[in-house]
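A quick word before the example. In earlier lectures we treated sequence and structure as two separate objects. From today on, think of them as two lines of the same record. Here is Gap junction protein written that way.
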Amino acid sequence: MNWGIFQGLLSGASQFSTAFGRLWMSVVFVFRLLVYVVAAERVWADEQGEFDCNTKQPGCHNVCYDHYFPVSHIRLWALQLILVTCPSLLVLMHVAYREDRERKHRERQGEDCGRLYIHTGKKRGGLWWTYLMSLITKALVDSVFLYIFHHLYKDYALPRIVKCSLPPCPNIVDCFISRPTEKNIFTLFMVVTTVVCILLNLCEIGYLVSKRCCENMKHKSQSNVVAYLQKQEMFNVNNKVNEEIEMLPNIHITPPETKLK
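And the structure line, produced from the sequence above:
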């Protein structure tokens, strides 16, 4: 499988990410994608061919392998990497949508018109929510796959020998897994890097939310200050008007005498 498209996707999304997001992409690309392509695929290349059982009964080998390995590690990891990078594609699509709106706005109004967005990649409005949902989705995807691995393979570990008595096996047969120690090391490595990615996603979520809360509090504080200054200015203007009125000379107007008929 050609993983170059995912490398390009991660590289394109990094320019719209925070420091936590760029660190997450580095971990995914170096410690997960490259390890998968360079080493993990080769380690599991012989997983079924080297799964030996001490019987020649036709079908026993396949049945036992399917029972203990319903889904291959390597295929689950490939699916995990695909799904965990898809939310970054949503962010890129949202930025592309903004750029298209900005282009059409300039074509209709002219180059001297105001901009719809200060910066099409700035995380404000809908793009902020898209980015936040992408982080939540990536953390959920990794968490779900961690649960699936733990459910299928207890404690993420492969035993050296498994006992199988499923039909058409004639009796309880011993089956041996190829290179279980090496596979366990890679499994542990992939699990640890997945946990690191989840923590980075949670840190970035906390950073984005706290930053937005601080900006809202700052904006509210500035609004209160402006309102207070405006109130003070109106108060001073009223005082000045009152003082000018008091300085005017008092003019007494005597009403004309009325004659009684």
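Notice the following. The first strand starts at residue 52 and ends at 53. We will return to this example when we discuss secondary structure assignment.
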